[in-house]
Amino acid sequence: MAHIILQAPSLLAADIERLAAMACAEGVQEMGPTAYRLLNVDPSTQAEVLAMAQTARMDAAWLDEVHRFADCKLLAMDMDSTLINIECIDEIADVVGRKAQVAAITEASMRGEIRDFADSLRRRVALLEGVPESALEQVFSQRLRLNPGAEKLIQSAREHGLKTLLVSGGFTFFTERLRRGLMLDAAHANTLEVVDGVLTGRVLGEILDEAAKARHVQTMAGSLGASPEQIIVLGDGANDLQMMGLAYYSVAYRAKPVVRAQARFSLNVSPLDAVLNWFRRQH
User: Fold this and answer.
1) Per the structure, how many domains does the chain have?
2) Residue 31's domain spans which residues?
3) Beta strand 27-32 with 35-41: parallel, antiparallel or unpaired?
4) Which residues are catalytic?
């Protein structure tokens, strides 16, 4: 029988009861102040229950079976606006007063309105020509923050034996610092060309686009012998959809509508570590 995990920063008892009745749940289990499990729900109520949960500003995960977290093998994440709170390229542009121009392209690209990610990235990076490399350090130290729950999710993944992968259409300047700081197993991103301490407005080598992101996930999953049911992929933009399609646990975090529509799970109000409540935690 299926279960539903309901999560939100603040949950109202009346909403939980209403959803439990609508789902014909055999029981309600409190998992903590921000999470409840509806037990043995009626599968025919799925669409109605998920729609009502969304209206009530709750994240609802429909699980036909609750697996052990330790049975998963790979946690893969996008960086900008998923693992971290900013779009790094927009903030770099802000240092030289070009944020509005760059952010407009970023937003259109993440919504899926610009189909060619590589082209959109080249256009944005070109606007960074002449920016001092020190601006990257400034963005990293002053503006970049991990999104809530990120450290707990990654630490739990490590404790339960999952490999961790950061795949970003952003830049190695940031992914490498995050890889070291969070002790991630691997990180892949684009490399900004710097000459004499100044950005040239070009990217070195091939651009890491949505297809490349998916290839990195596929390669690591293959090396681990991971099936889709053993892969968790978190993303927020259209260029994350290909890699999310490789995972049973495809998670849209504060995502664009096009991404929420295709992901199996969404976290619209809960922190990143809310993912852990979808699993049994025993080793």
Assistant:
1) 1
2) 1-66
3) antiparallel
4) 78, 80
Is the whole model's pTM more than 0.85, yes or no? yes
pLDDT in tens, 163-172: 999 999 999 9
CATH label of the domain that carries residue 60: 3.30.70.260
Asked whether residue 142 is domain-assigned, the answer is no
CA atoms within 13 A on the CB side of 211: 6
pLDDT category at 282 given cuts 50, 70, 90 is low
Contact 164, 184 (CB under 8 A): yes
**Residue 173 to residue 150: CA distance in whole angstroms:** 19
Residue 45 lies inside a defined structural domain of this protein: yes
What does the pLDDT look like over 37-89, one tens digit per residue? 999 999 999 999 999 999 999 999 999 999 999 999 999 999 999 999 999 99
| Chain segment 112-130, per-residue pLDDT in tens | 888 889 999 999 999 999 9
Decide if pLDDT at 283 tops 70: no
- Is residue 57 domain-resident? yes
Domain presence at residue 257: no
